[in-house]
Amino acid sequence: AGAPAIRKVLPASWFIDYGTNAEMRWESVDPQRYRTPQARLFVRNHTATPTIDPADYRLRVFGDGLRDPVGRSFDLRELRRRFRTVEVTAVHECTGNGRSFFASQQRATVSGTPWTLGAVGTVTWQGVRLRDVLAAAGLRPDAVSIQATGLDAPYVDKGVDHGRVRRPFPVAKALDDALLAWGANGRPLLPDHGYPLRLVLPGWIGIASVKWLGSLEVATTELTSPWNTRWYNVDGPLTVNPVRSAWELPWAASLPAGRRVTLTGRSWSGAAPIARVDVSTDGGATWSRARLHPARGRGWTQWTHTWHRPAAGAHELLARATDAHGRSQPDVAAVNPNGYFFDAVVRHPVTVG
Ligand code: MTE
């Protein structure tokens, strides 16, 4: 039986609850607090959160990409003692974040969890470098692909058993910045977030960061799974997250009339730091630059905008970020059947007065 999901015992005011999934409400975000507490981090599960006894836990690493294909297993003690502990601060985000705006802003029909913009957080992960563990497991120089498989129950959809949640990724990403994480923000992972060990591929779409990591198959040929061919694929497997922005306001928001109101928000990109954020308080007629606060690591960028003499009535707030690679947010996102990568500027409704 799956452990009760943490979101079920938390205040509804923190989340929008979609059953097996839960989304952070932006109005529950503390503007003073950079990191997203695990208790408020969105949850995205294909099945149910499993109960795993850390004493029995083993990570199995095997495959023809190792000098000995039989491979070996690591328990948590060995992982923690043998390898250097590292910390990585990064945005953690589901690629379907913003999906509901395909329907509400673009009148496009797509399937999947109808997230608004809360399937995202910034987390400081604690763990070990995957490259260190692969070296200890005897990685061969001609290995190209690694399949990560979770210990949660097989995913059955409309009577079809697709097997355990699993997704391959290139060895190059493993050697670059992939992490095997046991902690988030200095605490052990909560059950919903992958306890006792999860993979973290910084900057990549959420499905790449397999929770309750059971095994890593290392191969000299390209591996595939339904999670990179059938789902999370638009003309090829999706990898790096796009640029997105959100106002730290309820949906819809009510603001008091007055001389000025200070608005805050956050922008992020899977590829590079945020270089600028343009905001509009009149539905896109005029724009100004938001004041950016420095990002930490690969986390999001917080920003502030002072709105002078907002007129009473209904308005739309817009924010458009651009990252250091020049990637920005379009007015209209590219439509795809499963509603991934909604990166368009979101029109946030606000009433003043
Ligand atoms: N890993 C396993 N084993 N099972 C899952 O259902 N969901 C993935 C990914 N890893 C999933 C998984 C998806 S789609 C996302 S967006 C992230 O985990 C969500 O991580 P979180 O619930 O810790 O926020």
Automatic annotation (TrEMBL):
Keywords: Metal-binding, Molybdenum, Oxidoreductase. InterPro entries: Ig_E-set (IPR014756), MoCF_OxRdtse_dimer (IPR005066), Mopterin_OxRdtase_euk (IPR008335), OxRdtase_Mopterin-bd_dom (IPR000572), OxRdtase_Mopterin-bd_sf (IPR036374), TAT_signal (IPR006311). GO terms for biological process: sulfur compound metabolic process. GO terms for molecular function: heme binding; molybdenum ion binding; molybdopterin cofactor binding; sulfite oxidase activity. Residues 259-337 form the Moybdenum cofactor oxidoreductase dimerisation domain. Its cofactor is Mo-molybdopterin. Residues 46-227 form the Oxidoreductase molybdopterin-binding domain. PANTHER family: SULFITE OXIDASE, MITOCHONDRIAL, SULFITE REDUCTASE. This is Uncharacterized protein. The lineage of its organism: Bacteria, Bacillati, Actinomycetota, Actinomycetes, Propionibacteriales.
